[in-house]
Structure to design on (249 residues):
């Protein structure tokens, strides 16, 4: 089963996240994942289009607004690198369930697929040249939450039973985040994730049960007290992990 459950033959993709290249070559069958700190660097408000600016303005909390704005600005900068174009020339649209995609009128992406996720200041961006892709990241929360109850509603009874059997709260939270990110990455790959899904898992219950079989899913090592997962329509020939650095001003 490749879904929200662990796949013993797919260990976490560990290792350093070196700075990424300015013109990344995305070969057929390759997947690129970028990691970014949304609280460090320019806000990038000027890169957003009018709908994105309006959406940012609806976020009343200044910090959430700043993080969301930079997350979209970085998406545009990265798409500009892959499409070899001005980030402002990228036209974005949303699928039925909110998954972003290139819209008609964008520079030709030649099958480029992408997905993004952020939790507080940590963001991940995934790109591939063909096939669907999904990525999810979650930071451990500072407040208590009933992980088994959330799992029962969103991940299924079996996962809830596994969590209830873990006595240590830190281990239970880590296992919950691992299962949650795999589940969310799969839903986003399939294009059935929730509209506007970002932030707290407790307010993002999918209620959809387990994702379909057939996806390739792996965990990504994003450090302690965090979890991340990548889901692809097929196993990539190459998986590159890079860290975003703002160009010198």
């Amino acid at each position: 089963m490749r879904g929200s459950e662990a796949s013993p033959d797919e260990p976490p993709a560990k290792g350093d996240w070196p700075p990424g290249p300015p013109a990344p070559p995305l070969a057929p069958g390759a997947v690129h994942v970028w990691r970014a700190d949304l609280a460090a660097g320019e806000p990038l408000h000027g890169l957003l289009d009018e709908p994105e600016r309006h959406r940012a303005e609806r976020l009343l909390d200044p910090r959430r607004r700043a993080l969301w704005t930079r997350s979209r600005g970085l998406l545009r900068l990265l798409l500009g690198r892959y499409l070899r174009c001005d980030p402002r020339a990228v036209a974005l649209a949303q699928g039925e369930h909110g998954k972003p995609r290139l819209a008609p009128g964008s520079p030709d992406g030649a099958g480029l697929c992408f997905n993004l996720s952020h939790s507080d200041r940590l963001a991940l961006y995934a790109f591939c040249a063909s096939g669907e892709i999904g990525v999810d990241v979650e930071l451990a929360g500072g407040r208590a939450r009933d992980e088994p109850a959330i799992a029962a509603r969103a991940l299924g009874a079996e996962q809830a039973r596994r969590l209830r059997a873990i006595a240590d709260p830190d281990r239970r939270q880590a296992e919950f985040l691992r299962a949650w990110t795999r589940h969310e990455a799969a839903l986003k790959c399939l294009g059935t994730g929730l509209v506007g899904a970002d932030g707290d898992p407790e307010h993002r219950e999918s209620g959809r049960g387990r994702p379909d079989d057939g996806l390739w899913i792996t965990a990504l090592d994003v450090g302690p007290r965090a979890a991340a997962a990548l889901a692809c329509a097929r196993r990539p020939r190459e998986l590159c992990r890079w860290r975003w650095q703002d160009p010198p001003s």
